[in-house]
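Lecture 7, part B: from sequences to assemblies.

Below are the input chains for today's worked example.
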Amino acid sequence: MLKAGLYLPGDQSGDAHIFTQRLAKMAAAKGVTFLYDTTIKGMDAAADEVMSIRTSKGHLRADAYVVSMGSYSPLLLRPLGVHLPVYPVKGYSLTLPLTDESHAPLSTVNDETYKVAITRLGSRIRVGGTAELTGYNLRLSPDRRETLELSFSELFGGGDLSAATYWTGLRPNTPDGTPVIGPVPRFSNLWLNTGHGTLGWTMACGSGRILADMIHGRKPDIPVLDLSISRYR
Amino acid sequence: MKIIILGAGVIGVTSAWYLNSLGHEVIVVDRQPEPGLETSFANAGQVSPGYSTPWAAPGLPMKAIGWMMQRHSPLVIRKRIDFAMFRWMEQLLKNCNAHAYDINKGRMLRVAEYSRDCLDALREETGLTYDDRQRGLIQLFRTEKQIDKAYHDMKLLSDSAIPHELLNVNQILEHEPACRTRAGC
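Predicted structure of the full complex, as structure tokens:
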């Protein structure tokens, strides 16, 4: 039996993938270049600045570089002698087609018992959660699916579990929960925007904006000094 | 300035958007054929400043041990030798005290609240839609113990001036009429 709920009226919901795709399209229309199918292999650096990045399509050079590679960020930075404490915490989700609106959630809930989130996304229902410390593997564990199905079917209906898409992704978690946004002290042109853990979608716009302000040399709207990698020293 | 962004997930793309709007030349590089195909692809879909809480909390080590015994545990640690993982867990444990928790929670809330405001402004400015809704979030409790913990969280939410309300079962149904309030524990 449910006993109570904690309502947070200021929270919102939405599909991060659709958001990212549409924002990328709008950015491209404004002149941003996107190089896809281009694997990043490493960075070439002098003592105090990054000179270029090595990719599957050759070297790329710029005045400044931003690392926003989620869980893969520390792997790229390690050869430069930069230790970024980000470790992948694997999460899973199910996306169900909506079959009956009258049994489905209207907004988003967190099932505290299983730490599972159930969210209405247009004509779909997203059920996400669980945390696995298992390195960088992206295998889809059948046990985790069972937990997601259990939480959903105990609380709601109106979605077709048999037609669900099962997915996994690696959250880039820091040990202190806070993302790492800002400059890397030793390199004058290297910036980080990563380590957002479970909250990359929640924090994306604000993180992008304060990082842009910092690179531009403009004072961000909120304090940022304690968000940089320097807090770990 | 010419700026290369490594990674076209939600973080790389928002970074690109704001750098471009400040007049910079931006190039985004990604191994995938499209943006947002890795961790940004199918997350839980919540934009949740109110739920922005560090895992590293005073009670976490004991809770983690309890979870290990559960079949449907929220946390699973696969036995493996991985020094990066050990080092990360050691740092996480060092943050499991009240002092560190409050500092970390404050930083996270600051970024998350600001970010929600930036998202609102971006929607307003561009008319962007993404199967989005602005109807709040409800954390559902099935045990008295969960409610006890919620009172502590409510104090932190009050300290940060984040609107919140404890709902009884009937009030939950006003927001989520389809919710099965007889769900088992």
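Note for the exam: The first helix of chain A runs from residue 16 to 29. Keep this in mind when comparing with the next example.
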